[in-house]
Amino acid sequence: MKKLVLSTLLVLQAVFVFAQQNPALTGKVIDSKSQKPLQNVVATIQSTNQSSLTDFDGNFKFGTLPQGEQILIIKTVGYIQQTFVIEPNSGESIDLGIILLEEDITSEQQLSLVTITENDLGDDNSGSESTSGLLQATRDVYQQAAAFNWGLARFRIRGLDNEYGVTMINGISMNKLYDGRPQWSNWGGLNDATRNQEFTMGSAPSDYTFGSALGTQEINTRASFYRPGTRISMSGTNTNYSWRTMGTHASGMNKQGWAFVVSASRRWAQEGYFEGTDYAANSLFASVEKKINDKHSLNLTAIYAQNSRGKNSPNTQEVNDLMGIKYNSYWGWQDGKKRNSRDKDVEEPIVMLSHYWKITEKTTLNTNVAFQTGSIGNSRLDFQLGNNPDPTYYRNLPSYYNNLGDATGAAAAETFFLNNSQINWNAMYLANQNSAFPGRSVYVLYEDRTDDNQLSANSIINSSISENISLTAAANFRKLRSHNHQNLLDLMGGQYFLDIDPFYTGDASQSDLNNPNRQIGENESYGYNYLLHALTFDGFTQFKFTYDKADFYLAQSFSRTEYQREGLYRNGIYAANSYGKGESVTFENFGFKGGLTYKLNGRNYLDFNGLYQTKAPSLRNSFSNARMNNVITPDLTNEKIVSADASYILRAPKFKARLTGFYSKIQDATEISFFYGEGIGSDTGGDEDTFVSEIVTGIDKQNMGAELGLEYQITSTIKATVAASYGQYIYSDNAKLKTNDDALAAAGNNSLTDFGTVYIKNYHQPGMPQTAASFGLEYRDPNFWWVGANINYLANSYIDVASILRTDNFSIDGNTGDNYSGATPETVRDILKQEKFDSFALLNLTGGKSWRISKANRNTVGFFASINNVLDVEYKTGGFEQSRKATFPDLQGDLANGTPSFGPKYFYGYGRTYFVNFYINF
Asked: For the whole prediction, is pTM greater than 0.85?
């Protein structure tokens, strides 16, 4: 009995001493306007990994606190972050009482302004959009500037493409297996429904996936995580659409354990910023959660986002000088309306079932199963026995005649082009009616179509193994069946279209030898028709260690990827290897990463991250000419990725700063492109051309630079921000180039031609500013109105160079083995110098106001507005060299008169644009 009493007293004493040394911290978080408690607000002690979520009544609690001055951060989506300095005294608990969070009306503005420009839409059938970095609603000053201020100039964080980041919904990757990039249109217009996001930068640790060199973005659609209420908004803009309506309702969790969220939006425009760019999009979202008990919950999410929009043509300088930068050659008048020939249509609904299992207080398991189906189509014109309907076809322009020395013809061509600068739909309909073969269409509209069915599943476990160690592990599975085909959309008054290639004769002209000379009707496949199969498994484990002075983590991953092509047509050129299932190709990959955060004190930190991983090539790049045959890309191998960064971070109540140096290297990348070229493969020179697929392997890229983000709260109402990025993004070594020439194969020869080395070492990677800076001021009035301005400087953006021009084929005559006349190292270097675009500055203004319109119901209304590029600056966002003139004498001749027929084509950014949004919350 004595021992029991003594033991009890000792335990009580230990508990008392522990309580003295580790006091509790409590508080209650409410909405400043509605005075309602806020659930699922994150309270974090900055120098530790300790965090607490507010409950249904808005309360949070920490059982223990580290000694010394600490900084507490209170944050949640849609509200302004609150920061507190706390100094716990020995034996004293701290009750912060009521904490008011003010609605952040800039968050809706930022989410609404993240738009994907028409210039970012590719012509392939992947549907993926190469937007600027990862677009997120984060409070980091640098990342905000990158996404919202520099994004429309196609800025990429650390110079990395989206395929080196991972975008997830409930832990399931949304990156396309086809090209590795996310398809943003799959959830476009659902800004309210996709607000719950977590973002990691670079190779920093994620609680969902191993990630890669760019970072991760996780969108959480669990119904109970949404703030209860209803929101309706109406927006107007002059960017890629004109109007948007949106409505969202979240119920919150009721007493029966049910929660649901529904959201819908519509965006539309008869014409966007660029000529003839029509736009129509409808989006629906629903999420329903059932809390079975305290340990288990099920959540069903459904997303439907249908989008159709007209593309905008890149143009040569000659065309821009004649027509202006808003000119778009893809449209023409029909029945008094503008009709675009290059529409992109996306319709890929997603259904996802999620199971949340709280195994213990310290261990959770989240399992998700998703199915995505639907189609992506990119339309364009096709023609047989007729003239090219493109008004900018090179023989329609003055430069063609100037290069022939025909000044009279050039003047006539300019007059004709100025009077006939758009597609002539009526002329094509007339040509079909007067066809030499009655009923046979000369011109048709078709789409490069992809019909995908993808099954995905994953399971993610998070566990606190001890007070200092946590574990995250996940396993992922994806299976894709992708049907790729040419789908005829419109016979344009005809009765059928003949499924042949008029550039060839005999069997070589047949798309499908199993069904030769087919007469094609609308909504039927022709030209090419094949399946792509992909199967991937991957898993990762991650350990995080947290101590008083340092946190560190270690993670590792393994993946297995298998691809196979199955031809549905027996192509006349590749009769032996185009029909049926081809050889499968398998890749196995691994990755390791780790990092350390050293805490100098409660406000100053040093942070280091490093990564090495191998990565399978994309499905797109694994087959050298997938539309025609089953041939696997020669010299195909895994990419190798090395990434590292080091940061100094300061987080004080009024001043926040981050300075980061970064480095990444990507080796053995592969790129495949298609074009017509002269002096290549089967072509013997002159004004003839041949269609080839260009296979560039062994591409090495090196990205290094620095990032800076500063935020200073000058007064309680005025805040200043500074962000800057300086990078050097180059090709760090030469590559290898082969071409696949259909004409060679049709003649019975080897279709592959080895062009050897591509001399691209030290050329700059294209299509993004490598230098960017921003300075902003914001005034936020206590009466819930605000105004802000920022000035942005962007520079060091380069054109995309043509690889075939950087081979020996360009300067060496294949017939003699000697250099072409005049092709000295100096003249070749001069003619192939990479174009650097002009730097530019953009001024942006923003502002907004909100009101509480009912004290009883705490309803609010508000608006915000922005004007981007106030000074209407004209600037290039990208461009590419054409590969048509592939030899020194051909290119030199084309450049001789100063206006080349095959000069580079350019994309331009928006001029002065506005965005206005009105909303009501109740």
From this structure: yes
